[in-house]
Amino acid sequence: MPLPSSIFSAQFGDLDLKVVSGEWPDGLHGEMFVSAPVVDARLDYQLFGFGAMMRIAMRKGTHGAPADRVALRVRTLDTPVQRIHARAGGRFNGGLLGLESPYGHANMANTAPLGWGGRLFATWDVGRPVEVDPVTLGFLGEVGSAESWGGDSFRARNVLPQVFSTAHPIVDHGRNCMWTVKLALTASGMEPQVVRYDGTGSRVTMWPVSGATVVGSMHTISQTRDWLVLADSGNFKADMNEILGGERTVTVDQRVPVYFVRKEALESTPAGQPVPFVRAEFGPTTGHYYAQWDDSDGVKVLFEHLDLTDLGYRIVAGDVDAHGRPVDPRHVGMYQMAMAPQTVSEMTFDPEKGTVRVTASFREEWTWNLQLSAMDWSPAGLDSPELHHVVFQGRHPEVLARRVLDVYRDRIDPAAVSGGEQCARLVTLRRGDLSASSVWEFPSLGDLPSSPVFVQRRGGRPGGGDGWVVVPVLSDDGFRVECFDAADVSAGPVGVLAGPNREQVPFILHAIWMESPEAPRDADRLRFVDDIDTAALDALDDADRRVVLEVADELASA
Fold first, then answer.
1. 326 pLDDT above the threshold of 90
2. Which of 238, 105, 111, 117 is CA-nearest to residue 167?
3. What is the 3-state secondary structure (H, E, C) of 361-387?
4. From residue 534, how far is each of 157, 540, 545 by CA, in Å?
5. Around Cβ 274, how many Cβ atoms within 10 Å?
6. CA-CA distance, 92 to 105, in Å (whole number)?
7. What is the pLDDT of residue 236?
8. DSSP 228
């Protein structure tokens, strides 16, 4: 089977990577951070395992690696719930949204890293952001007390609250804050609430976006100089029949809402009071989107659409694939991959009127499974983006379950979903018209490239073209890190790293590049002991209560 079978069997471990092809550019600098879920056989979805953080140096001879090697270091995040689990793992069981326990819901913090002025955070859609030491990769604290977040999204009262958030908060360099969201259950559905964290202290500030409704999730948020952009991803919807033990039958939406909230309106509205918003719609659904900072001529957003990608379905034992063949049991727990080629579009919104027009679009018959991209995240790059680098992971009918295709039979092309496997591609799109200026086809159907990053050349021109694109590649033949010239990815990698013994790496998710990760500064951070709901603690039995207090003491003395 072309999809690597090792993605759920390989183990994380430190590696000193060597150059196996080309030359590793001397001008590379900074470090790459990658979030990943640790495989857990108890889980229905292997995307929901405990979070690990991988750091890949961009220069040789750092972090204990020999002078001719590049350090890859990885650590499972020792969050409060991970420490509780280490003491009382038998009290946890797999559920639809991760691990459940008498202590509450586990915050896996396993999806995406976020850098902010040398600081590092790990995120998840079903938990608060977690700050991590970028040098040791150790836990430092969760962002904002549960009480300041308004408690559990479903109003439960546990030591470990379940907070529906976003995997992609944003850092506002103009206001020196982090913007994120909480989704809270209301009578009309899930309501988004804007959350602001100023970088210190144990509290966040929140404003409800009353009247707005989210039926999927809010996997990403974005921003311009004046506006926050909040879109319903629509690709992971709750199914009450499934929650009650039945078969999943819900399908993803074809169009979803997007909400615009003016930053000045937030700052002039008392915390806890509703803020005004403007609503628009667009389609297809999307997981990731990026607004241009300059909004003087409307809010310009690049959308990486997830056309007919339903992340709520996963491969289960006994599934047959699009060709009618038994699915490799090693892929059980993998999400249902794309059932159509994916679209990238640029749209311009008038946030005062809620109108939208599509200004550019890109889609080919080979653009399957777009989920990961690289761009220039510097303030200048966000203001005037030039190039956008996208990984398409290829067509994989071997992980398209016929059971799911039957649910979507009226919306799919049977010939396309049951066609042959297609290789992955790295594509460079020009901003403005979304023309493909450069395309690289990965040489093996067994290559599964993951989240790329853009590394700007020191002193280089901003915009995404003056530097390198670095791509981690999963393969049963061994993990690789490939470096491309951002101005011409079609020329192939200029340098390739691999483990000395073709070591494999399991499934990994989003990545970022940080120029200057720093040892943690003294900061007023939330302490776990101060975050514990005393009534929830008292409701535990003696043994469970003792475990929580032991972890609180351990973290307090760390």
1. yes
2. 111
3. EECCCCCECEEEEECCCCHHHHHCCCE
4. 10, 10, 10
5. 14
6. 9
7. 84
8. E
Taking the CB of residue 533, how many other CB atoms lie within 10 A of it?
A: 18
3 state DSSP class of 262: strand
Which of 545, 544, 548 has its CA nearest to residue 531? 548
Does residue 240 register a pLDDT over 90? no
Q: In this predicted structure, what is the pLDDT of residue 244? A: 74
- In the predicted model, is pLDDT for residue 446 greater than 70? yes
Pairing status of strand 299-305 against strand 355-362: unpaired
Strand ranges (E), 225-342: 227-231, 256-262, 278-282, 286-291, 299-305
Q: What's the rounded Cα separation, in Å, for the pair 160 and 154? A: 12
The whole-number average pLDDT for the span 180-195 is: 92
What pLDDT, on a 0 to 100 scale, did the predictor assign at position 235?
86
Radius of gyration of the chain (CA): 22
Q: 3-state DSSP call for residue 414?
A: helix
Token pair, residue 417, equals 């979903």
* Cα distance between residue 181 and residue 230, in whole Å: 9
Look over the chain and give the mean of its residue pLDDT values, rounded to a whole number.
Answer: 95
Tokens of residue 315, six digits: 């491969």
Angle 119-125-131 from CA coordinates, rounded to 5°? 20
- The residues facing 52 across adjacent strands are 36, 76
User: Are 434 and 362 contacting, i.e. CB atoms less than 8 angstroms apart?
Assistant: yes
Short-list 558, 553, 557, CA closest to 84: 553
- Residue 293: what pLDDT? 97
Q: CA end-to-end span of the chain, whole Å?
A: 46
Q: How far apart are CA 330 and CA 547, in angstroms?
A: 34
- The C-alpha atoms of residue 174 and residue 350 are separated, in whole angstroms, by 22
Cross-sheet strand order for the sheet of 93-95: 93-95, 98-101, 104-105
Backbone angles phi, psi at 103, to 5 degrees: -80, -20
pLDDT at 359: 98
Strand ordering across the sheet containing 170-172: 170-172, 177-186, 189-197, 205-208
Task: Count CB neighbours of 459 within 10 A.
Answer: 7
Measured CA to CA, the distance from residue 400 to residue 264 in angstroms comes to 46
